[in-house]
Write a sequence for this structure.
């Protein structure tokens, strides 16, 4: 088995294993959430800044090039959680974002034999499906309007990463490590409820962004 085949087989094995683990944990969460009467929480939010877009901006490699552009949407966060006991919550988070970085540079067209402008685009979208556990520092019996917690999640990241160049021989070679298929997040969070069911939340940490805010509901 050559090196390329071994690498491809290894990446496929890791990818399939992460998918199966995420699916099994999700099914376990669905089963447990129906097993007894407990609190359910759904949150929808948006975060910033986008860590990949900030990485391109701070590299100071592309922004000095002609026609530089760095755009994207998200991160957006959708969360479901149930609390079997007051100090623990278990759930599933969906985190989505996309971005596109484009720029131009001079290159020699070997077919035409002259200097031309080569336009390059680097784009990506990804959706992380993470099983997450939250540890709570507040008991709802004593703090019925607030939740303070720390959470950590792990799962599988779906998506696509593309590098495009008008002149193929000048296309930048970018290889992402296989660990980027692994979805990870860790944040401190706070929720405040205006009434029995509706409130707002904010989290600080690493989950495609540093800060996120949004709406939350419990039932």
């Amino acid at each position: 088995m050559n090196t390329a085949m071994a690498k491809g087989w290894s990446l496929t094995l890791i990818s399939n294993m992460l998918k199966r683990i995420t699916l099994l944990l999700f099914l376990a969460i669905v089963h447990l959430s129906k097993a007894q009467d407990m609190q359910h929480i759904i949150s929808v939010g948006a975060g910033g800044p986008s860590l990949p877009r900030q990485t391109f901006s701070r590299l100071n490699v592309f922004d000095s090039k002609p026609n530089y552009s760095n755009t994207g949407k998200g991160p957006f966060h959708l969360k479901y959680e149930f609390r079997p006991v007051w100090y623990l919550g278990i759930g599933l988070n969906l985190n989505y974002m996309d971005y596109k970085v484009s720029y131009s540079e001079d290159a020699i067209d070997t077919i035409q034999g002259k200097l031309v402008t080569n336009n390059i685009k680097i784009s990506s979208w990804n959706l992380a499906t993470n099983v997450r556990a939250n540890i709570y520092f507040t008991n709802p019996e004593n703090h019925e309007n607030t939740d303070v917690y720390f959470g950590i999640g792990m799962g599988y990241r779906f998506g696509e990463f593309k590098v495009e160049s008008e002149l193929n021989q000048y296309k930048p070679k970018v290889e992402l490590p296989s660990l980027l298929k692994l979805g990870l997040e860790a944040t401190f969070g706070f929720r405040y409820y205006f009434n029995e069911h509706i409130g707002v939340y904010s989290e600080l940490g690493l989950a495609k962004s540093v800060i996120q805010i949004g709406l939350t509901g419990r039932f």
